[in-house]
Design goal:
The chain is an alpha/beta fold. The protein has helices spanning 26-40, 55-62, 77-88, 93-96, 111-119, 127-140, 169-176, 186-197, and strands at 5-6, 11-17, 43-49, 70-75, 101-105, 142-143, 149-152, 158-161. The strands form three sheets. A four-stranded parallel beta sheet has the order 3-2-4-5, sandwiched between helices. Strands 1-6 form a two-stranded antiparallel sheet. The termini are far apart. Its EC number is 2.7.1.91.
Length: 227
C-alpha cells in the first residue's frame, strides 16, 4: 500500500498564486475559502503572487526553501508545471523534490486536483466544491510520493511532467485558447472549435524499442512500418 507522510503542526506553507489563472478569481477564492480553513488547521501561509510567466519557476529554483514545510500552488496545472521544473533545475534538486507539494484548483484546467479529489474518495465536483475538498486534504496534512515523466527534446531541453505531454492538435488548443482565459474552462471548447475550423496537418516521426528476441539484448530503435 501507499506510505504517507504527515505535515508538522504548526505548519508554514509557501503559496504560489497566479491571480490571472482561470477566470481571474484565484486570489479572491484563496482569501475567502482557503485561508480561513488553513488558519483553523494551524497552517500559516506566505503568499507569493506571480506577476509574469515563469515567475514561480524562478522563485522555487532560486529561493531558500528550508523556511517552509510545504509548497502550495493555487492555480491550474500550468503553474504546478512551472514549480516542478523549477525545483528540478536546482543544484539540490534531490532534496528539494522531497518538499511536499499541494495543488489547489484555481485555473481553467485542474486535472491533477480533480484526480486527487477522486482518489481521496470524494464525488466528482468542480469549482468552489473542488477547491474546498482539496483544501481539506491539505488541512489533513497527509502526503505521498507521485511519479514524474521526463522528456528530452532534440534541441537538448529537458522537461518534467506530472500528467503527460501533448503534441499537435491538443497542444494548439491549449496555446491558442490562452487569450480566452477569462472564460474559465469554456476557453478549451472555444479553442477546439477554432482549431477545427483551421485544421492543421501535423507531421511527426514515431520510433520505438521492440521486445528483445533474447533476454539481455538491446536492439536499436526502429521506425514502425508504413501504413
Amino acid at each position: 500500500g501507499d506510505s504517507y507522510g504527515v505535515l508538522p503542526r504548526p505548519c508554514h506553507a509557501l503559496v504560489l498564486l497566479n491571480p490571472q489563472s482561470g477566470s481571474g478569481r484565484a486570489l479572491d477564492d484563496f482569501q475567502a475559502v482557503v485561508q480561513p480553513m488553513l488558519a483553523e488547521a494551524d497552517i500559516a501561509t506566505t503568499v507569493f503572487v506571480t506577476e509574469r510567466p515563469h515567475h514561480a519557476h524562478e522563485k522555487v529554483r532560486d529561493e531558500d526553501l528550508s523556511q517552509w514545510d510545504t509548497l502550495v500552488v493555487m492555480s491550474g496545472d500550468g503553474l504546478l508545471f512551472e514549480v516542478v521544473n523549477g525545483l528540478m533545475e536546482r543544484p539540490d534538486w534531490k532534496e528539494a523534490m522531497k518538499k511536499p507539494l499541494c495543488i489547489l484548483p484555481g485555473g481553467s484546467g485542474n486535472a491533477l486536483a480533480a484526480s486527487i479529489n477522486y482518489y481521496a474518495g470524494y464525488d466528482h465536483v468542480a469549482k468552489k466544491k473542488l477547491l474546498t475538498n482539496c483544501t481539506f486534504i491539505l488541512c489533513k496534512g497527509l502526503h505521498t510520493q507521485m511519479d514524474l515523466v521526463s522528456l528530452s527534446t532534440a534541441s537538448g531541453k529537458r522537461f518534467f511532467s506530472f500528467l503527460g505531454f501533448g503534441w499537435g492538435f491538443i497542444s494548439d488548443v491549449d496555446i491558442d485558447s490562452e487569450k480566452y482565459r477569462w472564460l474559465g474552462s469554456a476557453r478549451f471548447t472555444l479553442g477546439t472549435l477554432q482549431c477545427l475550423a483551421k485544421l492543421r496537418v501535423y507531421q511527426g516521426r514515431l520510433s520505438y524499442l521492440p521486445i528483445a528476441a533474447e533476454q539481455g539484448s538491446s536492439p536499436a530503435p526502429r521506425d514502425p512500418p508504413a501504413p
